[in-house]
Amino acid sequence: MQHTPGREDTSVPLTGRIVESFGRRVLVEIAPEERLPAELFGKRLSCVCGDEVTIRPAPAGTADAARVIAVAPRRSRFARTDSRGRTEVLAANLSLLAVVVAPEPASDPYITDRYLAGAALAGIRSILIVNKFDLDTATAPAFQTCIAEYRDAGYPVMLLSAARAQGIEPLQAALRGETAMLVGQSGVGKTTLTNLLAPQSMRSIRTLSPSTGEGRHTSVSTALFRLPGGGELIDSPGVRDYAPPMIEDAMVQVGWPEFLTLAPQCRFNDCLHLREPGCAVVAALATGQLSARRYDGYKRLLNIMRGLAPGYERRR
Q: What does the entry list as the binding residues for GTP (predicted)?
């Protein structure tokens, strides 16, 4: 519920959690089912959904807005690099990133690679949710091969149909006790899934664009919802691209656990798995032990980060 006048209508600071953000305007949960609209105080202060904050309520009898005056240290942060190489934090204090893909619209596996790399960089566990698995296009060999690559790399994969409420129970169990964020490209069904997992959210749903076959942005803000079975779910607007904030070549391979398993066998401790002699990753690639598509995603991310991040440490 929204805030109503009561005990906190004084200048005594309160603590709470950001449950929705609209730029510099936020919604702060100060008690179960009690939320207070607020604005950020000062140009240097920034916060995102999931942040734990201190707010100063507006004086009683005034039309002033409550103000966020401090942000607590974050246990984790999920961020991206924008087109100018700047880091933008998307959500705070996550314990799980759930990357949603679907056969329609066709998900870009290279973006999925980068989401998983961003989670690993932040120390956040990740799972892959394959929505719309009931569609005929989900049986296409190329799509099945792509999903198998992630499973072989060690990522938990969950198959479901949000529209038909099929396969939801295992996901509900996986989310119990977690602060999870749904990410993925527009149109893969994140909003439908959010409404199914957290019925109180009832976010607006739109169909795919008839002209492009791509998803339309349905969620226009990032919002946190309590899950009936325990846990929290953050829904975010769909994206067309994503790049994690990395500042050196060595950080990129953290998103490829199958590489990390082989890396100790490389001749050089600082091997980047490109052209170095004695590279165990390249050797495994040559024998078909590793996915060529996943390896291509690794090289693509290296090139993206070398071109985007200011001060990026390129070893070669």
A: 131-134, 184-192
22 assigned ligand-binding residue = no
Query: In 3-state terms, what secondary structure has residue 171?
Result: helix
| Rounded Cα distance, 201 and 195, in Å | 6
Digit-coded pLDDT (tens) for 127-175: 999 999 999 999 999 999 999 999 999 999 999 999 999 999 999 999 9
Q: Round to whole Å and give the CA distance between 182 and 197.
A: 11
Q: Is 213 annotated as a binding residue?
A: no
Task: Look at residue 67 in the predicted model and tell me its pLDDT.
Answer: 94
- Ordered by where they begin, the domains of the chain are 14-71 (2.40.50.140), 77-235 (3.40.50.300), 249-308 (1.10.40.50)
pLDDT score at 218? 52
Answer yes or no: is 225 a known binding residue. Answer: no
Residue 134 in marked binding region: yes
The verdict on whether residue 273 carries a ligand-binding annotation is: yes
Does 189 appear as a known binding residue? yes
Spatial CA neighbour of 113 closest among 272, 254, 217, 222: 254
Q: Residue 126, annotated ligand binder? A: no
Q: Which pTM was predicted?
A: 0.87
CA angle, residues 286, 287, 288, in degrees to nearest 5: 95
- For all residues of the chain together, what is the average pLDDT? 88
Residue 217 annotated in ligand binding: no
What's the rounded Cα separation, in Å, for the pair 138 and 293?
19
271 is in an annotated binding site: yes
